[in-house]
């Protein structure tokens, strides 16, 4: 069953592949970006231009929701996470924050080796 999916930051790297796959599977995709990087999705996506670190702008941009699913490719700080938690609380069925190995940078020199 097609879902309404919001992808925050979907013009490069993993996000671009994710958006392409969602389109291929027939989902209604909304792409939220700063509007800096071009994409080649044509009319296959709705676009929202928003600074994801601007709490008020995020609230205004997504007040129309709801979305079945949100993929956040641009959550890089506790502030980013707090804004998303506030904006999408109660109006999203599932919220997925993707990340990279960079989140482990602060423990790189410790005994814990998460990827051995």
UniProtKB/TrEMBL annotation:
Mind telling me which Pfam families this protein's record contains? Answer: Epimerase
Against InterPro entries, the record matches this protein to: Epimerase_deHydtase (IPR001509), NAD(P)-bd_dom_sf (IPR036291)
What SUPFAM superfamilies does the record point to? NAD(P)-binding Rossmann-fold domains
- Residue intervals of the NAD-dependent epimerase/dehydratase domain: 5-73
Which protein is depicted? NAD dependent epimerase/dehydratase family protein
Q: Name the source organism.
A: Devosia psychrophila
């Amino acid at each position: 069953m097609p879902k309404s999916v919001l992808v925050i930051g979907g013009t490069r790297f993993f996000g671009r592949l994710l958006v392409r796959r969602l389109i291929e599977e027939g989902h209604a995709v909304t792409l939220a970006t700063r509007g800096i990087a071009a994409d080649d999705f044509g009319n296959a996506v709705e676009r929202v231009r928003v600074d994801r670190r601007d709490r008020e702008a995020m609230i205004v941009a997504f007040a129309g929701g709801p979305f079945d699913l949100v993929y956040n490719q641009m959550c890089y700080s506790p502030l980013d996470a707090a804004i998303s938690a506030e904006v999408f609380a109660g109006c999203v069925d599932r919220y997925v924050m993707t990340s990279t190995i960079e989140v482990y940078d602060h423990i790189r020199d410790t005994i814990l080796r998460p990827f051995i």
